[in-house]
Design goal:
The complex is a heterodimer of chains A (385) and B (399). With 385 residues, chain A is α/β, with parallel strands linked by helices. Chain A is built from 15 helices and 7 strands. Chain A has one domain. Chain A starts with a helix and ends with a helix. In chain A, 45% of the residues are buried. The mean pLDDT of chain A is 93. Chain B folds into 3 domains: 175 residues, no CATH class; 72 residues; 131 residues, no CATH class. Helix content of chain B is 78%, strand content 0%. Chain B is built from 16 helices and no strands. The chains are: A alpha/beta (385), B mainly alpha (399). Chains A and B meet through helix 1 and helix 8 of A and helix 1 and helix 8 of B.
């Protein structure tokens, strides 16, 4: 055989061998890879910087400090529970762990902009399915449930599904199929591509390998968040979350726009019967109820504490009396609606002060401390000794 | 990009081993055709396949008749389809808006109800390949008799999305050899080329694309060196993006044992605009030369006619890239540049001759001038003319 032919053959044989090696390494990485000294998903290790931690990473994080006999408190939800407005030192979930003590393991798996049923909620579902004692803390605005697929964190649903981590819940699949039917062709293709990715990943484990390399050894994708050092491994990117600005500097930015959002918060959810009497706008309430049923399997609902976050008093105090009564009515009604569906639901922030808020929605360290106290209480009620 | 989707990965995982394992050339050609049809059907969708299938059938039948009138009618149909799908919005929104704003609004509403959201996948490439085929057959070339071979020429998947624009004579000559068997060395070389293409496209070009989109928003506040770095990155980005994609297409085809024409030959090493166009998107520039510039008269009727031919050919070349005014302006920029390059020695008499001597003697200077000219052209290619103008002013003010 000529040297050229030998070289060619060696090259062609090396391709499947290299692939097999990568699959094996990915399979290994899926069992242990996770960020070090994890506190929360800051921007450097989250989809904002094109780092999409796979389902296995989230599970590894949840199980890292857990041991039999302890209850896992998984925090899902959005930027409010992620602790925007609090530095990692003053993060509310640290306070929650201190408050709950050794019997509980608190893991903050919330992401900015995540829906209540996404990310952390899916990990909680997976661990409940495996028989672990889990409590899920999630949050949202009163009528926002959303869907596990279609958003920035939708990949985690397909990832979990393909790895056989999620519960059998036909209502969810039926709802997603019906939603896809009405979606544009490009969205349908996007979802199909995510499903293909997840199906291939279930066999070849490339997500775990790639993110492990990206976290430990170096990254290849330029992002706005990591622009000056995008090639650096993500374990070198620090949590850049800061505590809220001094009170005198808060709330003034875009006052009108923020007030408009505060006003609109409950506007479409209730219709007036008399000047200060309200009734829920039925189609919205029905849709919210249906989505809760579809997105949360019954076994997860029984282990979930849903927080409905009120806006900062700085803005709420500027609402008219009529708007405030509507707001209170909507929060109370939807809180009951979530409860009727089997989810322990609480409105939080209504009696917090301006000092407790970093901006319209996010909490300052003092608000975080109050939240931790409240949530600890809800957790204890749900999991009596 | 289609080649970095999971759908393509799955397709390739089934298609390529099948192609290599099948021994019979006839079966292999059916496997190839089936693969091309699946690829086209999946990525273009029914709305994208139907117009192309209709045009392909028309092209095949008209060329087979060898009647010039029918070939020209089919050419007109191909061009009409291209104009309809790709340029109706441009004609109604940009061109008509300046001439008759009222009519423009009506035309825009009307066209929105007729047209799909996006033109059929790779319509420009299909049109150019069909027109080339029909022109050559009308000029006496032998048509492709086998419908299977014609279908393979029309929807050959490696070059379907972004070229290179094939010539049917080369393709039909190379196809039987590929169907007879693929050398291992070709597979290995093709795989290496695909890897190089992915490296250029995903690792380099895609990163530059996001970074440029970020810094473009703040371009007016960049320092002079940063702004020039931006221009360099913009120039690098389009080369890496397009040549990376071409490398993948060429590599995939080589893995099937069929070599497609090269599209790039170190274009930024060019020492003149003519030289640049002999190295950049070669399959397009040679198509424009053969089917627009030369039929218009080329350089056969004096400098004035040559200049106007160049400008028309390059305005069309610009428009081919997309239905927007700035693409045409980019084409005109290059057309005018080529006119200046072809005429300045005589046009500026002794000064022109001396300038020509200097540029001939110092090739580095010619290279630098060409590079800067091309780079400023990319501003027109990527941004609306007014924005490109403001960016150019900032760059030239060195502040």
């Amino acid at each position: 055989m000529s040297p050229t032919k030998l070289k060619t053959l060696a090259f062609l044989v090396a391709i499947p061998l290299g692939f097999a090696l990568a699959v094996w390494l990915g399979r290994e990485a899926a069992t242990y890879a996770k960020p070090d000294k994890f506190i929360r998903f800051h921007q450097g290790i989250a989809p904002e910087s094109l780092f999409y931690p796979p389902f296995s990473t989230l599970e590894n994080l949840a199980l890292a400090r857990w041991s039999p006999g302890r209850t896992l408190v998984i925090i899902g939800g959005n930027s409010i529970l992620n602790g925007v407005g609090q530095s990692d030192k003053n993060l509310w979930s640290r306070r929650l762990q201190e408050e709950l003590g050794e019997r509980y393991v608190v893991v903050n798996l919330s992401f900015r902009g995540a829906l209540p049923c996404e990310a952390g909620a899916l990990v909680a579902e997976s661990l409940i399915k495996r028989g672990l004692h889990v409590v899920l803390i999630s949050n949202t605005a009163p009528s926002t449930v959303g869907r596990v697929a279609g958003g920035a964190y939708g990949y985690l649903y397909y990832n979990g599904l393909a790895h056989d981590r999620l519960m059998y819940h036909p209502a969810r699949e039926a709802d997603l199929a019906a939603w896809e039917e009405t979606a544009t062709p490009s969205i349908r293709e996007q979802q199909a591509e995510l499903r293909r990715a997840a199906a291939l990943d279930a066999r070849f484990h490339f997500q775990a390998l790639w993110h492990h390399i990206g976290y430990r050894y170096g990254f290849t994708t330029w992002t706005q968040v990591t622009r000056d050092h995008f090639w650096r491994p993500r374990d070198k990117i620090a949590d850049d979350g800061t505590d809220a600005r001094p009170l005198a500097e808060r709330f003034r930015d875009q006052l009108e726009a923020e007030l408009a959002i505060t006003r609109a918060f409950s506007a479409g959810l209730a219709e007036s019967t008399e000047p200060t009497s309200w009734r829920t706008y039925a189609p919205h309430a029905r849709l919210t109820g249906e989505l809760i049923d579809a997105m949360f399997p019954p076994a997860v609902r029984a282990r979930t504490i849903m927080l409905l976050n009120q806006n900062a008093p700085y803005y709420r105090s500027r609402l008219t009396l009529r708007e405030r009564t509507r707001d209170d009515f909507v929060f109370a009604t939807y809180e009951q609606l979530w409860r009727d569906r089997g989810i322990d639901c609480h409105t939080v922030g209504a009696n917090f002060t301006d000092e407790d808020f970093a901006d319209r929605t996010h909490l300052a360290p003092s608000g975080g401390r109050k939240l931790a106290l409240l949530v600890a209480d809800y957790v204890r009620q749900l999991t009596p000794p | 990009m289609i080649f970095n989707t999971y759908a393509f990965a799955l397709f390739a995982a089934v298609f390529f081993p099948g192609y290599w394992l099948i021994r019979s050339p006839c079966l292999r050609s059916w496997w190839l055709l089936g693969g091309c049809a699946v690829f086209h059907g999946h990525f273009a969708g029914p709305a994208g396949v139907l117009p192309i299938a209709a045009l392909a059938l028309l092209t095949y039948v008209c060329a087979l008749s060898r009647l010039r009138a029918l070939c020209y009618a089919a050419i007109a149909a191909c061009i009409a389809a291209l104009v309809f799908y790709k340029y109706t919005h441009f004609l109604s929104r940009e061109l008509l808006a300046t001439l008759a704003p009222g009519l423009s609004a009506q035309a825009t509403t009307l066209s929105a109800s007729w047209l799909p959201d996006a033109p059929p996948l790779a319509l420009s490439f299909f049109t150019f390949e069909f027109v080339h085929y029909l022109v050559d057959v009308a000029g006496g070339g032998a048509p492709i008799r086998s419908p299977k071979t014609f279908a393979l020429f029309a929807i050959y998947f490696p070059s379907l999305v972004a070229g290179p624009i094939k010539r049917y004579q080369d393709f039909t000559a190379a196809l039987p050899r590929s169907l007879a068997g693929v050398e291992l060395t070709e597979v290995a070389a093709g795989a290496q080329r695909v890897a190089l293409g992915f490296f250029k496209k995903i690792l380099l070009a895609d990163n530059l694309t996001v970074a440029l989109a970020f810094y473009e928003k703040d371009f007016s506040n960049l320092s002079a060196p940063e702004a020039w770095l931006f221009l360099a990155a913009l120039s690098a980005r389009i080369l890496l993006d397009f040549s990376g994609y071409t490398d993948i297409a060429l590599g995939l085809s080589q893995m099937l044992g069929l070599r497609l024409p090269e599209n790039f030959n170190y274009p930024y090493a060019a020492t003149g605009l003519r030289d640049f166009w002999a190295r950049w998107h070669i399959s397009l520039s040679s198509w424009i030369r053969d089917y627009v510039y030369i039929p218009l008269g080329g350089n056969r009727h004096g400098p004035l006619r040559r200049s106007s031919n160049l400008i028309i050919a390059f305005a069309l070349c610009g428009l081919w890239h997309g239905g927007a005014g700035h693409f045409m302006v980019w084409g005109l920029w290059h057309g005018l540049g080529l006119v200046v390059q072809a005429t300045y020695r005589k046009g500026l008499s002794s000064l022109g001759a001396r300038l020509g001597d200097v540029l001939d003697r110092f090739a580095v200077l010619s290279w630098l001038l060409t590079l800067v000219f091309v780079a400023f052209g990319w501003l027109l290619f990527f941004y609306p003319a007014a924005q490109a103008w403001a960016m150019a002013i900032k760059l030239l003010s060195f502040r």
